[in-house]
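Narrative of activities, Objective 1.

The group set out to show that a structural description can be obtained from nothing but a protein's sequence at a throughput compatible with the screening campaign. Below is one input-output pair from the validation batch, recorded exactly as produced.
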Amino acid sequence: MSLKPFDIEVDPPSEELMEIARRELRETPEVREAALEELRALLKEAKDMHFSDEKEFLLIFLRPCHFYAESALKMMRRIAEFKQSNHPLLHALKPEEEKLAFIDHNVVNVLTNRDQKGRRVLLVNCGSAWDPKAVSSEQLFRLFFLIHLVAQLEPATQINGIVVVLDFDGLSLKQVKALSPSFSRRLITFIQDAMPLRLKEVHILKQPYIFNMVWALFKPFIREKLKSRIYFHGNDLAKFHQFISIDKLPADFGGNLPAIDYTGLDWYPCVAAQIEHIEKYQRCGFVDDKKG
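Output recorded for this entry:
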């Protein structure tokens, strides 16, 4: 069955994709089964945590950890800690609660196509296109969180990873004030410690001089691994094209594809359709928080 532009790809990985997984993630049938067995055993011993032990669910954590079960368990514990410390923000989070932020404001979008390396590309319009009075920084984070939950379900995304493009065109003090130190710390902690996806690159585009105020907020929390994957391009799209092929980019970013004519309004049904996985993920964490 052919996929529609806003469908997610949940089919089993192709042979080509599995070759990438073998080369980059150590994934072979033997390694995979051994890691699944070990992680299930580790989860049984971790009496203070609850995570589903279904195969497809565990692969979400094993792939970014290169099938080292102990590393996957540590990631699960960091995720539980993050959910616990951000309980008021993430408790019982469902797509319907953020529907208006999705459909009425073009702040967060996802390219319908993958880039030349098979990676999903998340677009964030955090300059003048973002009105913090309409979509607060807390709502912005909740949108990120929901989108990452859906991305987890795609084997191709688990294996190839994701790219984030931050467009700061028209950034003003209005947006800078909304990007508080607490938001900065929460977002960077999430990305570095509690996001079971391979974040391959972050591209910052069209940032004006005032962006230095934003960077000053984020920089103290960023560790070397993430810092090495952040690229600043300003208005130099040719430099950006060295990372993402113009044949995979829309005209909005100097690419050869048609200009973007879709928004979160188009992606929302895709996110809302994955409510079963979202609720399953929300039930995971520390045992004391399971009912909370």
